[in-house]
Each structure stands twice: as structure tokens, then as C-alpha cells.
Specification:
The chain contains 15 helices and four strands. The strands form two sheets. The protein has a two-stranded antiparallel sheet. Strands 3-4 form a two-stranded antiparallel ribbon. A hairpin with a 2-residue loop joins strand 1 and strand 2. Helix 4 packs across helix 5 and helix 5 runs antiparallel to helix 13. The N terminus and C terminus are likely disordered.
Length: 457
């Protein structure tokens, strides 16, 4: 009996070590985990929803005559940018390459299938990352709405996604030089928000202000759209930040709860600032404060404690709030305050990540937990991304200007970019109606408007 039992134990031990002998490794090969895959499928869908949500948020903030054009700018990114990502962008961001950019080994999705990348299928990882580049490119439109020609915009965001976004993503998430320095960016403070805001600032300067900017009030035409967009953005952001854990885990729970708490704190402070300054709380202010909080927590979501997220959200409200007030006193026509909300919010969030990062919540230390150098690395990361994005964006816009006009004509702006570039309107008033814009001369339009008329070029 004793021999038999010893034989069984020896056999079991031998079987246990056979896989290691066969594969010559101490750890089993990566395997797809169904629970993580299911979680990431939901995260992919949530982040994809953020681009239509942005369309509503931006679309409600512009005048009625430009609503369709503004919303279509976001939806179009789901087409041209995602195709560019599949053809070339993904390999430039996540291919082996070097410290600056990935190689072409995965161009046209070569070698990307259902094999495991971590604990999810590689194809799913590609798709999830694709939702990030789509909304990042769409964010830029907020600085140039109501006056940039649609064909020029399409060409710009397509090229920008390849020569700006993809290399920056490689620097931080693809094993590039900022990753090597220890820069922390859990879900895109620098890669997404600072990157887009730098491009938006340059685009607003190159395209120039709207014809009536500073002379006539340009009020939002549909504030309920703004609130709807903000609410859907918050909903999708749980996939944006929680999904960046790349699996159903405690880290995903931490990032999701921080995505709940930080914007709440920003919103409270934003409302108090409004009450102190004007005695009122506007719906547009509520939506803006909410988005600023979401932006600020993005780089920190997986590195800070829940109370750290509350503190981060509260502090982040102040710089963006006053940046918006300052912008209104300048000639910079950043139409929907991309720089103040996403740029300033992204920079503040990245820097505060370096201050508040907690080894007990994400394994990384910050200034308050013993790593004083972390803030310097974070500052370097946002400065490098902003400088690169701004310079290359300027070059792209100048190059595109030689191919097709960047700026709408005065007549196109008077009538509205909806009619000028799309041949339709957001709101019709019956066949043969005379549409009178509050700040413009009457424009006759049939319903539906023929695609080829009126000719406004």
C-alpha cells in the first residue's frame, strides 16, 4: 500500500513538471481569460460610445446653422481615423520599433488574431486602443468648429492620427522613451488630452477666429444636447479608465470608482465658483466642470486612492475654470475651450498623478509617498507631448493648406457650414421656408436641400 501511494505521488510530481520541461520556461504561456475578454468587450463598446457622446456635447454648444457639421466632425473620426489605425496607426504605436516609434511589422493587422495579448485576444486589444485614437482626433474639432472646411478637417485628423498620435502612444504605452523614464499615464492624460489640446490650440491659431468672434454673442443653440453629451461621456468614461486595466480586476474597480469620485468633486467646486462669481449655476458650466474632472482623473485613475481622486478632482477645477475666463478676454477663438478643459485639465491631472500616486493603489509612488522625482518626470512627459503635437500639427495644417482650403469663406460662414459643406440643415421649417438666422440675412432653402446647392465656394 505504501509503495503504491509513493508511486502515485512520484507520478503526479513528474506530470507537474513535464510542461516546464517541454516549454523550457517557468511560467505557462499567456492564455485568453474569458472573464477579462467579456469585460474588455464591454469597455470597447463604452469607449466607442464616447465619440457620439462628444458629438452631442459639441453639437449643442454651437449655433444651429453649424450643428450638423460639428456633430459630423466627431462621427467622421469613427471612419477615417479608425481605418488609418487599422492600416498603419496600430503598428506605429504598438509595434516593436524603437524608443520613438513602432515598426511596420503589424501593418494591415498582419499577425493580429485571436492569440492572447495579456489575458485578452490581441484583436480585441487592437480594437480597444482604436477607440482611443478615434475620440482623441475628434476632440480637436472643438477648437475649429463653425469655420474649418470639412475636407481639410478630414485630411488633417487622418494624418494627425498617424504622425502624431501613434508615436506619442508608443512613447508612453508601446515601450517608448517616456515609458522607460517611468512616466505615469493610466488612460491618456498626456497621450489623449494634452496631445489633442496642443493640436487644437495650433489649429485655432492657424485657421483663425470666426468672422463674428468678439463682436457678437455666439450662444449654444441646444443646452439639453450638451447635458446629454456630458452624461454619456461620463458613462463611457468608465470603459475609458476602467478598461485601461485590461481585465476584470481590482485595478479596474479602483479606476472605475476614481472615475466616479473625481468628476463629482470637480463639479461641486465648479458650481461653488459659479455661485461665488455670478450667483448662478449654469447647465453648460455643470457639463463643462464634469468633463474637466473626467479629463483630470484619466492619467491618475489606476495610481491614486479614492480620497486622492477626490482631492485631485477638487483641485483640477480651479485652473480650468479660470483658464476659460482668461480665454474669453483674448483673441484666441478656441470655440469650445478644448485647451482649457482638455489641455489644462490633462496637464493638472498628469502633474497631480506625480504628487498623489500611492504604492498601495497601483504600485507606484509619488511626491507624497516618497518619490520626489516623479513630478519632474510627469512634467517632462506633458511638455514633450505638447511640443511635439503642436509643432507637427502646425506643419500638417500648412501642408494641407496647399492642397485644399482650410478656412470657410465669409459667405459659407454667414449661411452656415451645415449648408455649405453638407447640403442639409439640422432643423428644417417646412418646404420652401425662409430660414432666418438671428445674426444673419435670410437664406431661402427648400426641404430637402439638394446636395449640390446652394453653391457657396
Amino acid at each position: 500500500m505504501r509503495v503504491s501511494r509513493l508511486s502515485r505521488l512520484a507520478l503526479a510530481a513528474g506530470l507537474a513538471i513535464l510542461p516546464r520541461l517541454a516549454f523550457g520556461q517557468d511560467a505557462p504561456p499567456a492564455e485568453v481569460v474569458p472573464a477579462d475578454t467579456a469585460f474588455m468587450l464591454v469597455a470597447l463598446a463604452l469607449v466607442m460610445l464616447m465619440t457620439p457622446a462628444l458629438a452631442f456635447f459639441y453639437g449643442g454648444l454651437v449655433r444651429a446653422k453649424n450643428a450638423l457639421n460639428t456633430m459630423t466632425m466627431s462621427f467622421a473620426s469613427l471612419g477615417v481615423v479608425l481605418v488609418a489605425w487599422a492600416v498603419l496607426g496600430y503598428t506605429l504605436a504598438f509595434g516593436p520599433g524603437n524608443a520613438v516609434v513602432g515598426d511596420f511589422s503589424m501593418a494591415l493587422l498582419r499577425g493580429i488574431g485571436l492569440e492572447a495579448k495579456g489575458t485578452i485576444p490581441h484583436l480585441l486589444f487592437f480594437g480597444y486602443q482604436g477607440t482611443f485614437v478615434v475620440i482623441t482626433a475628434a476632440l480637436i474639432s472643438g477648437a475649429v468648429v463653425e469655420r474649418m472646411r470639412f475636407p481639410a478637417y478630414l485630411l488633417f485628423i487622418t494624418l494627425w492620427s498617424l504622425v502624431v498620435y501613434a508615436p506619442v502612444a508608443h512613447w508612453v504605452w508601446g515601450g517608448g522613451w517616456l515609458s522607460g523614464l517611468g512616466a505615469l499615464d493610466f488612460a491618456g492624460g498626456a497621450v489623449v488630452h494634452v496631445n489633442a489640446a496642443a493640436a487644437a490650440l495650433v489649429a485655432a491659431l492657424v485657421v483663425g477666429p470666426r468672422r463674428d468672434y468678439g463682436r457678437r454673442a455666439m450662444l449654444p443653440h441646444h443646452v439639453p444636447f450638451v447635458l446629454l453629451g456630458a452624461g454619456l461621456l461620463w458613462f463611457g468614461w468608465f470603459g475609458f479608465n476602467g478598461g485601461s486595466a485590461l481585465g476584470a480586476s481590482g485595478l479596474a474597480a479602483q479606476a472605475s470608482v476614481n472615475t466616479f469620485l473625481a468628476p463629482a468633486a470637480t463639479l461641486v467646486v465648479w458650481m461653488l465658483l459659479d455661485l461665488k462669481r455670478t450667483g448662478t449655476v449654469t447647465a453648460v458650466g455643470v457639463a463643462t466642470g464634469l468633463v474637466v474632472g473626467l479629463v483630470a482623473v484619466t492619467p491618475a485613475a489606476g495610481f491614486v486612492s479614492p480620497m486622492g481622486a477626490l482631492a485631485l478632482g477638487a483641485v483640477a477645477a480651479f485652473p480650468s475654470y479660470f483658464a476659460i475666463l482668461l480665454r474669453t478676454r483674448t483673441r484666441l477663438d478656441d470655440s469650445l475651450d478644448v485647451v482649457a478643459a482638455h489641455g489644462v485639465g490633462g496637464v493638472v491631472g498628469a502633474l497631480l498623478t506625480g504628487v498623489l500616486a500611492d504604492p498601495a493603489w497601483g504600485g507606484q509612488a509619488g511626491l507624497l509617498t516618497g518619490d520626489a522625482a516623479r513630478v519632474g518626470v510627469q512634467a517632462l512627459s506633458v511638455a514633450a507631448v505638447a511640443l511635439y503635437s503642436g509643432l507637427v500639427s502646425f506643419g500638417l495644417l500648412k501642408l494641407i493648406g496647399f492642397v485644399t482650403p482650410l478656412r470657410a469663406t465669409d459667405k459659407m460662414e454667414r449661411v452656415g457650414i451645415d449648408l455649405a459643406d453638407h447640403g442639409e440643415e439640422a432643423y428644417t421649417h417646412g418646404e420652401g421656408a425662409v430660414l432666418v438666422h438671428p445674426d444673419e440675412t435670410p437664406v431661402f432653402a427648400a426641404a430637402p436641400v439638394p446636395a449640390a446647392s446652394p453653391s457657396l465656394a
